[in-house]
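User: For a benchmark we're assembling, each entry needs the component sequences followed by a predicted structure for the full assembly. Here are entry 17's components. Please fill in the structure.
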Amino acid sequence: MPRVSRWFIRTALMYLVAALVLGAVMQSPLAARLPLFRVLWPTYVHLLVVGWLTQLIFGVAYWMFPRYSAERPRGSERLGWVTFALLNAGLLLRAVAEPWHALAGRGAPLLVSSALLQLLAGWVFVVNTWPRIRER
Amino acid sequence: MGVRGEYLASDPGTLGVPRLSVLMIRTALAYLATGFLVGALLLIHRAVPLENWLHRLVPLHIEYLLLGCLVQLALGVAFWVLPRFRSGAERGQEAPAWVAFALLNLGIQTVAIGGAAGAPSTLGLLGRCVEGLAAGAFALHAWPRMKVFRSEDRGS
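Assistant: Structure for entry 17:
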């Protein structure tokens, strides 16, 4: 398994644990008393769907999709790392900025940055993966 | 415990991707790119209000990423890697899988664009029914490919 896939999959597992713990906390009686937990629903969903599910798919796809060529079996390894960095930077920024913006009305530049980082991550993944999916 | 993790074929030709899987996986990637774009616009809109109608794209964002990307990617990979038959067509009856591809994307577009355009809910229901038919058609294709291999089947 290539190193970047290991990072994708292990990070995905960490997001899974974090999201499920957050989900449990959001259901607890404590959450009803703290305003923070009332605005965390979108963060929870994106930790689960982007941090866990999408990241797991990115890691496995980078590892197991057909070879691009003998010299560069998985396309650009650099783009694989760029995807990993952009996705996680965007997601972590979102996890901070989204509740902050919802509660205090501040952090808009961080929220915009997180949107652009995640968008770029998705597009870079598509650019790197597309040429590997070819008909036999 | 050591795990052998190399499943890639030794060259591009030996584990080639069938045409339908290429179409499904590339369509899934296109939905991923579009879904992420819409998601980014929605997030930016939350920080810096852009256009009032943008909030109507939330169902499209969800539909494109969950059904268009994740489900379609899974179906495309399944069509490619599920066990194949030794005699006759190696992937069995392909027609239901092609029907599933067409119906799934018709259903996704009906639900997503209908929702974004504020169409009546009956259109959304129709789209969901078409997606359900797509799932049924794919199951019809894939069902016979789920088989327990005996030792003499090894290598097939």
